[in-house]
């Protein structure tokens, strides 16, 4: 198995009270300072993963596509730099249906960006965001997620495959339930024979905050307690089984090693 992390770019946002829902701003700023990061601004990377495994070239999550900020939507450009053509992707595996993970599937003209790929989506995630009653009752702030899921997936029924979290998705790729960030969020293990890689997608956001302090809740988690339990369960498994770890919002190369540190964990990327 070969894994390639491919940047879709970044987003920058000012740090404000409430980004961490259950910690005071001063504590959050101190955690950033301890990590050598600015204390007034957050830089969040977007990093999909390509895995060549089991005879397939698998893309995990698709970035923002043409629907993000000027600082992101760079996946296709960076795939080209890595020598990976869009039509070489044979499978796209989605962790969850937030826009920064699915919008790269189709461009603004409606064309499929990865035309040869089968698209795999967690069944409970699909069921949540495709539920018309939930969409009608949802706050305006998240109606955009419902709309994006319909725009992206509606016309591609023939390419779409649903799977239950915990099932083998493809040879060498097994899904894991990782609920919390969203109702059907999935993580994945990718088996390279002597070495396994876990891609935990959005199980943790900024490493200096939520890997180091896994009981903190980011404002994007739909179920903060489920997300907290997911972070600890997945992190403990990565360490116990000596896996490599990749995450959609982890820093540097976004693939590296995890270690216990105090009441939390430290992530060390293979390349800064």
CATH architecture heading = 4-Layer Sandwich
Find the CATH topology: Metallo-beta-lactamase, Chain A
Radius of gyration: 18 Å
Q: Structural class, from helix and strand content?
A: alpha/beta
Order of helices and strands: EEHEEEHEHEHHHEEEEEHHEEE
Distance between the termini: 22 Å
Got a strand count?
15
Strand content: 25-35%
Domains counted in the coordinates: how many? 1
Name the CATH superfamily assignment: Ribonuclease Z/Hydroxyacylglutathione hydrolase-like
- At the first level of CATH, the class is Alpha Beta
Question: Helicity, in percent?
Answer: 25-40%
Oligomerization status of the protein chains = single chain
Number of helices: 8
Low-confidence stretches: none
Bulk shape: globular
Mean pLDDT equals: 96
Query: How does the major sheet shape up?
Result: 7 strands, mixed
In what order do the strands lie side by side in the largest sheet?
A: 9-10-11-12-13-14-15
Please give a handful of descriptors for the protein shown:
six-stranded mixed beta sheet, seven-stranded mixed beta sheet, single chain, Metallo-beta-lactamase, Chain A, 272 residues, alpha/beta
């Amino acid at each position: 198995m070969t894994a390639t992390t491919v940047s879709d770019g970044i987003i920058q946002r000012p740090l404000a009270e409430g980004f961490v829902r259950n910690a005071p701003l001063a504590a959050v700023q101190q955690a950033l300072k301890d990590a050598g990061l600015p204390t007034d601004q957050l830089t969040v990377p977007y990093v999909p993963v390509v895995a060549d495994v089991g005879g397939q070239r698998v893309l995990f999550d698709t970035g923002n596509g043409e629907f993000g900020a000027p600082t992101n939507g760079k996946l296709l450009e960076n795939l080209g730099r890595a020598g990976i053509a869009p039509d070489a992707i044979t499978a796209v595996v989605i962790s969850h249906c937030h826009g920064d993970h699915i919008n790269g599937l189709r461009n603004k003209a409606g064309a499929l960006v990865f035309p040869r790929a089968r698209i795999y989506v967690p069944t409970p995630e699909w069921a949540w965001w495709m539920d018309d009653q939930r969409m009608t009752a949802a706050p305006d702030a998240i109606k955009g997620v419902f709309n994006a899921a319909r725009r992206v997936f509606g016309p591609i029924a023939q390419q779409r495959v649903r799977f239950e979290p915990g099932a083998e998705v493809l040879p060498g790729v097994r899904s894991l339930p990782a609920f919390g960030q969203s109702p059907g969020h999935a993580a994945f293990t990718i088996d390279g024979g002597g070495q396994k890689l876990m891609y935990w997608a959005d199980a943790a956001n900024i490493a200096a905050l939520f890997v180091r302090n896994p009981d903190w809740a980011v404002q994007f988690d739909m179920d903060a307690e489920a997300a907290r339990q997911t972070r600890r369960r997945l992190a403990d498994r990565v360490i116990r089984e000596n896996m490599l770890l990749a995450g959609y919002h982890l820093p540097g190369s976004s693939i590296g090693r995890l270690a216990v540190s105090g009441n939390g964990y430290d992530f060390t990327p293979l390349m800064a």
